[in-house]
Specification:
Length: 275
């Protein structure tokens, strides 16, 4: 068959042909994913280091801590990221990161949290930035050995709801400082905030569709006066819209304590991060 004939067939496909049917099917629209990095808090667990700066500006090996969170999202394919911070050193982030272009970020807006009101309150400051898109929320003191791209790709394929990343932690004393997930097989049953007798998995990274911003205004402060991200996660759990991944490799919370901070430093110096 000549190329002229082939062009003719493409211009006038037969009625009911496969070509006609393919054009009639519209692909499902998948909202893009934006990133939100939370770099606020008072950093009391790292005193006296944090009396002179924000903890997320402290060095991890040869770079400021915040750089690893930026890299984790950028290397996973995100181009638009909001940084939420607070306190008296907020301007230092702008001096360090600027418009984000040198770090691979195409859009880097900032939001200021006036006081330590919790992770959920900080997330609420990103509502206009996120719009109707999906969002990855990363705590800036979380350091991952491996790339978080697989988790983000899983979230992109997830039709609705939320997703958390879990990490196996062998030392129960670490879990008492964190929100942890109770599992029943492959389902998340509930999220517990800083339990005395914790389960064996710990949340480290959060993913939400835009419905999260419908729920945030209904939250009430906890006993410690903060809007808890655990309440947000349990809202999705109760709706049956929470999924999870288990991260491979090392994960560390560099803001947990002085000892944890230096443990993360030692690991990154020897092994690197976001690989």
């Amino acid at each position: 068959m000549t190329s002229t004939r082939m062009r003719s067939l493409r211009r006038r496909p037969a009625r009911g042909s496969a070509s006609r049917r393919r054009r009639a099917v519209k692909p499902r629209s998948i909202p893009p994913v934006k990133g939100v990095i939370l770099a606020g808090g008072s950093g009391t667990r790292l005193h006296p280091l944090t009396r002179i700066t924000n903890k997320h500006l402290l060095p991890i090996y040869d770079r400021p801590m915040i750089s690893y969170a930026i890299d984790a999202l950028v290397w996973a394919g995100l181009e638009e990221i909001m940084l939420v911070t607070g306190g008296t050193h907020a301007g230092e982030f702008f001096r360090l990161l600027g418009n984000g272009h040198e770090h691979g970020v195409s859009l880097l807006p900032y939001a200021y949290q006036e006081q330590a009101g919790g992770i959920a309150e900080a997330l609420g400051l990103a509502e206009r930035f996120v719009g109707g898109d999906k969002v990855v929320v990363m705590l800036a003191d979380n350091i991952f050995e491996r790339s978080i791209k697989p988790a983000i790709e899983n979230f992109e394929r997830q039709e609705r709801g939320a997703r958390i990343v879990l990490s196996k932690v062998d030392e129960p004393e670490h879990l008492r400082h964190l929100g942890v997930a109770e599992l029943d097989g492959d389902k998340v049953v509930r999220i517990l905030e800083k339990p005395e007798r914790p389960p064996s998995e710990v949340t480290g990274l959060y993913f939400y569709d835009s419905t999260v911003f419908e729920f945030l205004p209904t939250l009430s402060p906890s006993a410690r006066g903060e809007l808890e991200i655990t309440d947000v996660n349990n809202w999705f759990v109760e709706k049956g819209e929470m999924e999870y991944d288990v991260v491979e490799g090392f994960w560390g919370d560099a803001g947990e304590s002085i000892d944890a901070y230096y443990e993360v430093n030692d690991f990154v110096r020897e092994n690197g991060a976001n690989q």
